[in-house]
């Protein structure tokens, strides 16, 4: 147990310093910041132009479906990269597994295509 006291001491010093620095930064920030907000400072700013209209915009659901398909195929690449790195070590079994994985994704792509998710009409 005595061999770890040096490590414990560093952890305690780190935690105490982190808390102290956070308290000092928040306290100084509250004292030093300007506390006189004017009407101009409270207005939203859009590249020097007065904002016009409502800030909320409704998007079509197709955008979300398209983004979801992008994420699915992006994650596919993440799964295929380690397979490609270890291709020689995996052999035929690894090839069959990757082909099954890609076939399942192609089936999903065909399904999305037939449901006309990829069309922008």
> Which series of helices and strands comes N to C?
HHHH
Largest sheet: none
Overall radius of gyration: 28 Å
Model regions low in confidence, pLDDT < 50 over at least 5 residues: none
- Let me know the average pLDDT: 84
**How many β strands by DSSP?**
0
In percent, how much strand structure appears in the residues?
Answer: under 5%
**Head-to-tail CA distance between termini:** 70 Å
Total helix count? 4
What percent of residues adopt helix (DSSP H or I)?
over 70%
Q: What shape does the CA trace take? A: flat
Count of individual domains? 2
Structure class:
mainly alpha
Family: Belongs to the complex I subunit 3 family.
Transmembrane segments: 6-29, 63-84, 90-113
InterPro entries: NAD(P)H_OxRDtase_bac/plastid, NADH_UbQ/plastoQ_OxRdtase_su3, NDAH_ubi_oxred_su3_sf
Protein name: NADH-quinone oxidoreductase subunit A
Describe this protein's structure:
- The chain contains four helices and no strands.
- It has 121 residues and is mainly alpha-helical.
- It folds into two domains: 2-42; 61-114.
- α3 packs antiparallel against α4.
- 0% of the residues are buried.
Features:
mainly alpha; 121 residues
Write the layout of secondary structure elements.
Layout lengths: L4 H28 L6 H4 L18 H25 L1 H28 L7
Helix pairs in contact: 3-4
Subunit structure: NDH-1 is composed of 14 different subunits. Subunits NuoA, H, J, K, L, M, N constitute the membrane sector of the complex.
Enzyme class: translocase
Family: Belongs to the complex I subunit 3 family.
């Amino acid at each position: 147990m005595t061999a770890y006291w040096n490590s414990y001491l560093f952890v305690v010093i780190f935690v105490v310093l982190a808390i102290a620095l956070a308290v000092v930064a928040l306290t100084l920030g509250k004292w030093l910041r300007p506390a006189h907000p004017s009407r101009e400072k409270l207005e939203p700013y859009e590249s020097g132009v007065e904002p016009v209209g409502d800030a909320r915009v409704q998007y079509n659901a197709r955008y979300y479906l398209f983004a979801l398909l992008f994420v699915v195929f992006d994650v596919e690449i993440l799964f295929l990269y380690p397979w490609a790195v270890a291709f020689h070590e995996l052999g035929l079994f690894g090839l069959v597994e990757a082909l099954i994985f890609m076939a399942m994704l192609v089936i999903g792509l065909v399904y999305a295509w037939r449901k006309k998710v990829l069309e922008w009409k």
